[in-house]
């Protein structure tokens, strides 16, 4: 119960950061167009630094086994979400933004600070499993969906700063290599601004939207119901039952970290990628802001259900 309450408190903090972005646009200090510069900063500089920084941990049999469990659970989670979208997509008429909003969560921008605050810095390492799976799918499946073409540009994927950072992080982890102090401080510095900068972007885009109109829209409520209730609650039961059978000493918290990522609101990157690929940025932001607000209630309840089962 205590973990659920701590989770709720940290989500409120994230929401307040987004509110600042909303205010600075409404008051005229910034224009909504300025958010695109911040989007590129987060996607191509800050987020790669998060990936590298997360792998700066000692390789032991325990951490390797725990990471393997987390990767399998993360892959299963994404497969489950993709299947849900495939099954419900045609009867419910999902568009491109809705499909990726249901599948891709705020694992990087929200989960890392949440795990750090609720469980402790030493557990942030296991968030990389979900980030690993989600990053690969983001720059393949997610981008293909937003483009509307079932094609994969291998060169673009391999040369993407996020994938390069992922490869560097894995090499450093497996090789037991620690970054020099000066370089480590630089990487950590960019990592630390990911969450507030991402929330500013969302708030700035929302600042150009009539919130009364936002909450009068019926469609985003359906997307949020699937993203925040149907998928995480179902997966909470599955992980809770699976956790009883796994022998690893850290199973409960490792699976909880994956569940926190699954139960997170819509990925902030969806709004940013919508800008990059000329999709409906406002609609993506509407779904995002609604999911952030509602997750204040749904995420703690999801974790509470998991704790009761495991």
Automatic annotation (TrEMBL):
Main location: membrane
Transmembrane in keyword set: yes
Compartments where found: Cell membrane
Membrane topology: Multi-pass membrane protein
Keyword Membrane carried by entry: yes
Keyword set, alphabetical order: Cell membrane, Membrane, Transmembrane, Transmembrane helix, Transport
Gene3D superfamilies linked to this entry: 1.20.1530.20
Example of a GO biological process term: transmembrane transport
Gene Ontology cellular-component annotations: plasma membrane
InterPro entries with a match to the protein in the record: Mem_transp_PIN-like, Na+/solute_symporter_sf
Family per similarity comment: Belongs to the auxin efflux carrier (TC 2.A.69) family.
Protein name in the entry: AEC family transporter
Organism: Mordavella massiliensis
């Amino acid at each position: 119960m205590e973990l659920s309450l701590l989770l709720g408190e940290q989500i409120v903090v994230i929401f307040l950061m987004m509110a600042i972005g909303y205010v600075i646009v409404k008051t005229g200090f910034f224009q909504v167009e300025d958010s695109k510069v911040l989007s590129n900063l987060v996607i191509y500089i800050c987020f790669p630094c998060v990936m590298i920084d997360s792998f700066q941990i000692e390789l032991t049999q325990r951490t390797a086994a725990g990471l393997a469990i987390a990767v399998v659970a993360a892959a299963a989670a994404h497969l489950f979400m993709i299947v849900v979208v495939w099954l419900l997509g045609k009867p419910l008429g999902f568009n491109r933004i809705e499909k990726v909003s249901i599948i891709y969560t705020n694992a990087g921008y929200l989960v890392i600070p949440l795990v750090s605050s609720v469980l402790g810095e030493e557990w942030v390492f296991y968030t990389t499993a979900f980030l690993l799976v989600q990053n690969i799918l983001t720059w393949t499946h997610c981008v293909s969906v937003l483009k509307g073409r079932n094609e994969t540009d291998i060169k673009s994927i391999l040369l993407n700063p996020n994938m390069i950072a992922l490869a560097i992080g894995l090499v450093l982890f497996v090789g037991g290599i620690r970054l020099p102090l000066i370089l480590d401080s630089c990487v950590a510095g960019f990592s630390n601004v990911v969450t507030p900068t991402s929330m500013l972007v969302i708030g700035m885009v929302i600042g150009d939207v009539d919130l009364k109109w936002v909450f009068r829209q019926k469609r985003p409520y359906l997307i949020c119901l699937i993203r925040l209730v149907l998928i995480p609650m179902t997966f909470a039961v599955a992980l809770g039952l699976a956790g009883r059978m796994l022998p690893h000493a850290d199973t409960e918290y490792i699976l909880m970290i994956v569940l926190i990522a699954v139960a997170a609101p819509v990925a902030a990157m969806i709004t940013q990628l919508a800008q990059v690929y000329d999709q409906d940025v406002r609609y993506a932001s509407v779904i995002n802001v609604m999911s952030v607000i509602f997750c204040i209630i749904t995420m703690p309840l999801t974790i509470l259900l998991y704790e009761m089962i495991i």
